[in-house]
Amino acid sequence: MSNLMDKFSLNGKVALVTGASYGIGFSIAEALAEAGATIVFNDVKEEFVQKGIAAYKEAGIEARGYVCDVTDEPGIQEMVKKIEEEVGVVDIVVNNAGIIKRIPMIEMSAADFRQVIDIDLTGPFIVSKAVIPSMIKKGGGKIINICSMMSELGRETVSSYAAAKGGLKMLTKNIASEYGSFNIQCNGLGPGYIETPQTAPIRVDGHPFNDFIIAKTPAARWGTPEDLKGPAVFLASEASDFVNGHVLYVDGGILAYIGKQP
Ligand code: NAP
Ligand code: GCO
Fold this sequence. Notes:
By secondary structure, the chain is an alpha/beta fold. The chain has seven helices and seven strands; from the N terminus they run βαβαβαβαβαβααβ. The chain has helices at residues 23-34, 46-58, 73-86, 110-138, 159-179, 208-216, 229-236, and strands spanning 14-18, 38-43, 64-67, 92-95, 141-146, 184-191, 247-250. Strands 3-2-1-4-5-6-7 form a seven-stranded parallel β-sheet, sandwiched between helices. α3 packs parallel to α4 (110-138). The protein is globular, with a radius of gyration of 18 Å. The termini are far apart. It binds NADP nicotinamide-adenine-dinucleotide phosphate (NAP) and D-gluconic acid. Residues 18-19, 21-25, 42-45, 48, 69-71, 96-99, 119, 146, 148, 191, 193-194, 196-199 line the site of NADP nicotinamide-adenine-dinucleotide phosphate.
């Protein structure tokens, strides 16, 4: 009888984490590596890819990095082909790369709106489309889309990001529906408010939003990328083989809570 914990092992698996030179992507990649996966990642800038490779090395991880923009479909197709030749078929993909532009909607240009949609929603489409054919040939795979509180909630100044992350939740459900019969599980991981460079501008001590998030989170703290490691390994492993089209929120309880009375 196999040991239950073996179901969380990623030994022999190749995991691609997009935009993983630092931040949430880097932490998730660290966790997948600790569970046994071989890590490949991409970033748009050579400088960040090199910094990422050095940071992985410092963490004892021999990661392979590629310079590629997730919105560049020919580039992503070429990168996936290179990964298959140099490392192996991608078993697990984490669509992590993403940006946010905090601009009041009526002041936001359509170009800015489109850029966020392109990276945060079209990017995961492009990357998933590139890896699914080989996953099918191999007999299955795992796609993890990094969603957000904004997959469920709106707030001032993040219209493009909420539209993208809401769409990413439905893309997750649709990939699960269309490719579940090929033993491909596609789920979302929905972080709450996490301490990364992306949230640094709204996290400074004394910033009203910082105090607001503390009051809105039952755990009364910001999350850290560490908090995402266990859930990511679960969704990447055979322990979640019958979980499909689900968004696992890792938010300290924000979505369940009306918020602390002022
Ligand atoms: P981050 O610190 O800004 O890192 C984003 C990463 O994505 C960077 O490495 C960035 O590379 C890369 N990237 C951006 N555009 C790209 C593109 N077109 N192609 C390839 N890589 C690209 O963000 P984070 O906080 O770690 O967030 C990572 C993911 O989690 C995002 O999808 C974000 O929406 C989501 N998320 C974050 C939070 C949070 O509270 N932080 C909560 C929920 C969800 P460069 O530095 O080279 O631009
Ligand atoms: C914001 C934040 C959020 C977080 C995250 C929440 O401005 O509201 O940046 O969008 O990044 O997505 O889950």
